[in-house]
Amino acid sequence: MVSGTTKVVGVIGNPVEHSLSPVMFNAAFEAKKLDYVYVPFKVEKKDLSNAIKGAKAFGISGLNITIPHKQNVIKYLDKFDIMANLIGAVNTIDFSSGKSKGYNTDCVGAVQAIKEVSTVKNKNVVIIGAGGAARAIAFQLAIEGTNNIIIINRTAKKAKSLIYDIKTLLSSDFKNNSKLDDIKIDFSHINLEFDYGSLDKLPKTLANADILIDTSPVGMHPNINDKPLATADMMHSNLIVNDIVYNPIETSLIKEAKKANATPVTGIKMLLYQGAENFKIWTGKEAPLDVMEKSLLNFIQ
Ligand code: ATR
Description:
Shape: globular
Number of strands: 12
Bound molecules: 2'-monophosphoadenosine-5'-diphosphate
Largest sheet: 6 strands, mixed
């Protein structure tokens, strides 16, 4: 029940009507008997600066940031963590210190999803797509010791420039950035091979891959019958296949993975694990993963 002491967290974006986060977080707060409520806020691009100021003024404890604000919000924040800085996007803000601190938890959420079934250290990973999600995932894999990342994209030159960006940023000096207050990662130990290509290179690259992560929107509701970019004939039974699309849960790519006897990892897991990170940032407590996953599955199905 909402009372005079209830702490408010929420999501700002546009649209936010279809967000699954309110369902997932409110179930988690209830299960842990925490006096929090999670609310969706629709915010237009032109109002973003005022929204952040207003959130501080209202004493809001934390926010998730979604499309279209993940990049733009950075300039309105007091501090951010190293991953948000590297990726150039924030999906979580914590206001508990009186300052606004931005985090990127999409990256760790995506990789945690895969770690349910396998380590990512010393693996060969193929990422389809070269947008914001691919960028977040590639950075996280890099700091977790992945051996080799191949970025396959419809527009090969976007994959090339993403790789250039990652390499440059991983070798840059962060010590002089006053907005960064925690640099815990030792970048000198990152020893990673990168390659890129267009979609026609998929069959060859997948033959030698351990993990495939598809960050393209192909197969997303309502286009659920669109042919996936990777099909069963390109996969092998030791491959882990992760689709970051979670609506539907069983995408056409996940169906192909099952056909090939590969190990599927559905998009709902990324949502779940980034949510668990946010929960910890805001409340300081471990998230009730089972409750959160059940609430998501009940709501979608
Ligand atoms: P996000 O920021 O969420 O990762 P995005 O920037 O729109 O989303 O990136 C989606 C990726 O999926 C892009 O790399 C896009 O390829 P292009 O760079 O060629 O645009 C890729 N993508 C989108 N629709 C696709 C399709 N129908 N076939 C192949 N790739 C597609």
